[in-house]
């Protein structure tokens, strides 16, 4: 089983820094199914190639099946295609041997990590269960030039016809870490099987490796189903979370006057510029948490960690957790909070979780206060019922703090066209009466009392720009 990676970036031997593998050495690592070797057939300033060669023991795969999932007619037999054809075994070897590169880390040359470079990947035997059209449908939307040659079953017997295997060269200009995640996910998708049991941990692996490209891929659903071995419950979970995490997409509609489009967060910040509204939201919510004398807080939909930064220094709060559906936002939160440089006391206090507000999660349980700041408007109204059960019925904290825009106040923003929302990913924006009616219904349904507060300078007629509901558990 072979994968080669070639670059003509100058100096091309920078590939060694990106892969954390010295071109002058042979690197070998034992795997549970054989041995993975990394070596460089060529290493010069103009061109450098790294090869990952995986020796697979097919007899061992059949005899020692612990941790492996059998596929009838494939790995039930001593003679199979696993030593030769690219498969999930190759993806596993990539993760083990190129883990730092795939994670976007380079200790010696960190500046190289985010530089797009010309790359060519070759796979001499790639299963394409779906044919060349599927191969192109998976890689071409990601910017690859695909050169594929279908292999015959046996060159000596042309009448036997073509096989499902292709010799493939993939060319692109990309950061290496992003391209490696493409291969890691899509190789087993093309093979349409995996050598191990797939469970919910595999969903997390897919979401981590598929960010930021998978949520907008035109073949997203097919990729998810095949990667998760057609386990419908896991595929539905992954697709829902990918849909929710795609809230930072560009507003394609643009402004009414034809000015350039802006990302949703930037659009909202421009509207609120000069009001310090986001800071006032965080201060108001933090003030409620302090007044409730909470010792533990979970911020559901924590984004980039702005509220967490307010909560961490509070003396009475011993446990702070931030949860978000976006891996990217959690990474930004880590950086903004300077997690690596934080004192051990604060590090022990803080936990960051990747999760979803529309799935029951035992990790949300046991907190004094749950905060949901400018989040509900990003959910489809049809899914609010699921959200309320997750928070109020299953997690059931002592108090819940929810903030959301007041749509009546939108008339105060001269640059916001009538009928448009403040953020392109908002699925709705409520008036004060609508929000209060919804909040009172949830309070009555789940046994909470609720009170309302305004955030920001209020207009006598239109109210304040942000509205807040504070729920307290009465049972």
List key phrases describing it.
Rossmann fold, seven-stranded mixed β-sheet, 2 domains, c-terminal autoproteolytic domain of nucleoporin nup98, single chain, alpha/beta, seven-stranded antiparallel β-sheet, elongated
Distance, first to last CA: 61 Å
State the low-pLDDT regions, or none: 66-73, 247-264
Q: Please identify the oligomeric state.
A: single chain
Structural class: alpha/beta
Order of helices and strands: EHEEEHHHEHEEHHHHHHEHEHHEEHEHEE
Q: Please give the domain count.
A: 2
Mean of all residue-level pLDDT scores: 86
Number of helices: 16
Q: Give the strand content.
A: 15-25%
Radius of gyration: 26 Å
Description:
α7 packs parallel to α9. About 5% of the residues have low confidence. The protein is of the alpha/beta class. It folds into two domains: 196 residues, c-terminal autoproteolytic domain of nucleoporin nup98; 198 residues, 3-Layer(aba) Sandwich (Rossmann fold), CATH 3.40.50. The radius of gyration is 26 Å and the shape is elongated. The chain is 33% helix and 22% strand. The strands form two sheets. It has a seven-stranded antiparallel beta sheet with strand order 2-3-4-1-5-7-6. It has a seven-stranded mixed beta sheet with strand order 10-9-8-11-12-14-13, sandwiched between helices. It contains 16 helices and 14 strands.
Please render the helix and strand layout as text.
Layout lengths: L1 E6 L6 H6 L7 E5 L2 E10 L4 E9 L1 H6 L24 H10 L1 H4 L14 E11 L3 H9 L5 E8 L9 E13 L1 H16 L8 H11 L9 H8 L4 H14 L18 H8 L5 H15 L4 E5 L5 H6 L7 E6 L2 H10 L7 H6 E5 L14 E5 L10 H12 L3 E7 L26 H15 L1 E8 L10 E8 L2
Parallel strand pairs: 8-9, 8-11, 9-10, 11-12
Antiparallel strand pairs: 1-4, 1-5, 2-3, 3-4, 5-7, 6-7, 12-14, 13-14
Helix pairs in contact: 3-6, 6-8, 7-9, 8-9
């Amino acid at each position: 089983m072979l994968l080669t990676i070639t670059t003509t970036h100058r100096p091309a031997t920078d590939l060694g820094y990106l892969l954390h593998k010295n071109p002058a050495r042979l690197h070998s690592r034992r795997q549970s199914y054989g041995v993975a070797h990394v070596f460089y057939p060529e290493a010069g300033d103009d061109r450098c190639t790294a090869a990952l060669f995986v020796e697979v023991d097919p007899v061992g795969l059949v005899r020692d099946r612990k941790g492996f999932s059998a596929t009838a007619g494939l790995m039930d037999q001593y003679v199979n295609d696993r030593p030769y054809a690219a498969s999930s075994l190759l993806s596993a070897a990539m993760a083990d041997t190129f883990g730092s590169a795939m994670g976007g880390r380079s200790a010696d040359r960190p500046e190289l990590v985010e530089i797009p470079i010309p790359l060519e990947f070759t796979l001499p035997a790639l299963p394409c269960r779906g044919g060349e059209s599927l191969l192109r449908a998976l890689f071409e939307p990601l910017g690859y030039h695909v050169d594929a040659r279908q292999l015959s079953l046996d060159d000596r017997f042309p009448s036997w016809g073509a096989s499902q295997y292709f010799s493939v060269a993939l060319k692109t200009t990309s950061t290496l870490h992003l391209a490696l995640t493409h291969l890691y996910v899509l190789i087993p998708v093309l093979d349409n099987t995996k050598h191990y049991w797939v469970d919910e941990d595999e969903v997390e692996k897919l979401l981590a490796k598929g960010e930021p490209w998978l949520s907008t891929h035109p073949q997203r659903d097919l990729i998810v189903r095949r990667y998760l071995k057609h386990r419908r419950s896991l595929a539905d979970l992954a697709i829902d979370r990918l849909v929710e995490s795609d809230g930072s997409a560009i507003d394609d509609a643009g402004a009414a006057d034809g000015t350039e489009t802006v990302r949703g967060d930037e659009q909202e910040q421009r509207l609120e510029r000069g009001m310090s509204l986001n800071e006032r939201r965080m201060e108001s919510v933090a003030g409620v948490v302090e007044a409730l004398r909470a010792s533990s807080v979970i911020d559901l939909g924590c984004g980039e960690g702005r509220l967490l930064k307010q909560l961490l220094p509070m003396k009475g709060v011993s446990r702070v957790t931030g949860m978000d559906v976006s891996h990217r936002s959690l990474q930004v939160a880590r950086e903004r909070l300077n997690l690596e440089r934080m004192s051990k006391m604060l590090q022990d206090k803080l936990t960051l979780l990747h999760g979803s507000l529309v799935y029951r999660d035992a990790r949300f349980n046991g907190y004094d206060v749950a905060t949901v700041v400018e989040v509900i408007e990003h959910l489809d109204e049809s899914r609010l019922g699921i959200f309320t059960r997750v928070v109020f019925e299953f997690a059931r904290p002592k108090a819940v703090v929810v903030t959301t825009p007041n749509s009546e106040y939108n008339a105060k923003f001269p640059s916001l066209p009538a009928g448009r929302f403040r953020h392109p990913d908002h699925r709705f924006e409520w008036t004060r009466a609508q929000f209060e009616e919804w909040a009172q219904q949830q309070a009555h349904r789940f046994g909470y009392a609720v009170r309302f507060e305004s955030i920001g300078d209020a207009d006598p007629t239109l109210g304040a720009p942000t509205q807040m509901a504070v729920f307290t558990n009465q049972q």
